[in-house]
Automatic annotation (TrEMBL):
Keywords: Coiled coil, Signal. Pfam families: HH_AprE (PF25994), Poly_export (PF02563). The keyword Oxidoreductase does not apply. It comes from Georhizobium profundi. This is Sugar ABC transporter substrate-binding protein. GO terms for molecular function: polysaccharide transmembrane transporter activity. Residues 22-109 form the Polysaccharide export protein N-terminal domain. Residues 164-346 form the AprE-like long alpha-helical hairpin domain. Residues 227-320 form a coiled coil. PANTHER family: POLYSACCHARIDE EXPORT PROTEIN GFCE-RELATED. InterPro entries: HH_AprE-like (IPR058781), Poly_export (IPR049712), Poly_export_N (IPR003715). It comes from the Bacteria.
Length: 411
């Protein structure tokens, strides 16, 4: 029971794991990654759970690949998954402090290490990493291709920028549509999600569908486990009440027998046929039995109060779950509407560029007037390499994306 209850608490710590945790499940940490650590300990001797607030908090993996944790010092984080780091922290705390029980640690990836944009982009510099990031998306995040004072090249770059932004927004729109479908299923209590047909027509859409299905299943299972823990606690308390009621009944019978015996010898004691010590002994026995009954009734009352509190906790858990879904659905609807407006705006910018310079699209696609080169600089196990890339090449945390734009004279 204690282990299940501790597992329930640790589950609550990582409940916000959500999409970032799912995306980083097999991700190995590196320098500049930020993690959130939560530590709790089940104290067997006291039968209680203690939150290690002095250890819990946010940590950044330093240049040495380590994080500095109170009580245990530096811990190697680079090259480990969040699950492996959590196990390392728990073991280190137990060994360093000589604890009877191993503290339970939960590590959540709070922020990937950033990427860096260099070369012919509008705003070179450092940018946060997002899952499923490609070179084209990274260039769009950096403001697109650097603009030139030359009108023709500027219009071509306007076309490229608007196209890239529209592609990024289209991916975001698909993600929001999939999320909205999942939230609608959760809010109505359905086990199956009704996804729009447009999602199933592409590989990216299929990945979004599988991701949302897995997320809904995971969240439903987490809620079921939490409610089951509360039901187990209520069952235990109900069994305790039943045992107390049986003990109270036994004590009442013993009290009644003692009273009967006292009544039988009372007259004899008055006439001196029985010593008063026997009478006093029976009276003390009756008082002791009545005190025990009162203690057991008080314990039963406390157990019933705990059952009522557990029922309230279960109701609050369901209410929070439903409220969270409702709030997420409203926010998702708002974000989806804003994204669709942005897509329309980028489409209008594309049409404007084409209206003013029809050759912009041909130049951007064929490379006759504008040649764009991409290179990714990546540090792998301490070795830096330059990798040729295109617009669809995936970008990893810590990458440097170099963009080189060269105008080419028409033949």
């Amino acid at each position: 029971m204690h282990k299940r209850f501790l597992g329930y608490l640790v589950g609550m710590l990582v409940a916000s794991a959500a999409p970032l945790t799912a995306a980083a499940q097999d991700y190995t940490l590196g320098t500049m990654d930020k993690v959130t650590v939560r530590v709790v300990e089940w104290q067997t001797t006291e039968g209680a759970v203690r939150d290690w607030s002095s250890v819990s908090g946010d940590y950044t993996v330093g240049p040495s690949g380590r994080i500095s944790v109170p009580f245990v010092g530096d811990i190697e984080a680079a090259g480990k998954t969040t699950q492996e780091l959590a196990a390392t922290i728990g073991d280190a705390l137990q060994q360093t402090l000589g604890l009877m029980d191993r503290p339970e640690a939960a590590v959540e990836l709070a922020e990937f290490r950033p990427i860096f944009m260099a070369g012919d982009v509008e705003t070179p510099g450092r940018y946060p990493f997002d899952p499923n990031l490609t070179v084209l998306k990274a260039v769009s995040i950096a403001g697109g291709i650097r603009r030139s004072t030359d009108t023709g090249m500027r219009l071509e770059r306007d076309f490229i920028n608007a196209s890239g932004q529209r592609d990024v927004l289209a991916v975001e729109r698909s993600r929001l549509i999939a999320k909205r479908a999942r939230l609608l299923a959760e809010s109505s209590g359905r086990d199956e999600i009704e996804f729009p047909a447009e999602l199933s027509s592409s590989e990216e859409g299929q990945r979004l569908i599988e991701s949302e299905r897995a997320f809904m299943t995971s969240r439903a299972q987490r809620l079921a486990v939490q409610l089951a823990e509360i039901d187990d606690l209520k069952s235990l308390l109900e069994s305790e009440i039943a045992a107390l009621e049986r003990k109270i009944e036994t004590q009442q019978r013993q009290t009644d027998l003692a009273r009967d015996e006292l009544t039988g010898i009372g007259d004899l004691a008055t006439r001196g046929l029985v010593v008063n010590e026997r009478v006093l002994s029976l009276e003390r026995q009756i008082a002791d039995l009545e005190g025990r009954v009162l203690d057991m009734e008080t314990a039963a009352l406390r157990a019933r109060q705990s059952i009522a509190e557990a029922t309230q906790d279960a109701n609050a858990l369901r209410d929070d779950y439903e409220t969270g879904i409702s709030q997420d659905l409203q926010q998702t609807e708002a974000e989806l509407n804003a994204t669709e407006l942005k897509i329309t705006t980028q489409g209008n910018l594309i049409l404007e560029a084409l209206a003013r310079a029809p050759e912009a699209a041909a130049g951007a696609s064929s490379g006759d007037q504008l040649q764009i080169g991409y290179v990714i600089v990546r540090d792998t196990n301490g070795e830096v390499a330059e990798l040729p890339a295109n617009e669809n090449t995936p970008v990893l945390p810590g990458d440097v994306v170099k963009v080189d734009i060269q105008p080419v004279a028409s033949q």
